[in-house]
Amino acid sequence: MNVIIIEDEKPSARRLQRMLQSLDLNAEVLLHSVEESIKWFKNSTHPDLIFLDIQLSDGLSFEIFEAIDIKSAVIFTTAYDEYALQAFKLNSIDYLLKPIDEDELTTAVKKYQERLPKKQAVTLDFNDIKKLLVNPIDREYKKRFSVKVGQHLKLINIDEIECFYSENKGTYLHTVDGRNYLMDTTLEHLQDELEPQTFFRINRKFFVNINAIKDMVSYTNSRLQIKLNSYNEQQVIVARERVKDFRAWLE
Question: Signal peptide position in this chain (predicted)?
Answer without folding.
Answer: none
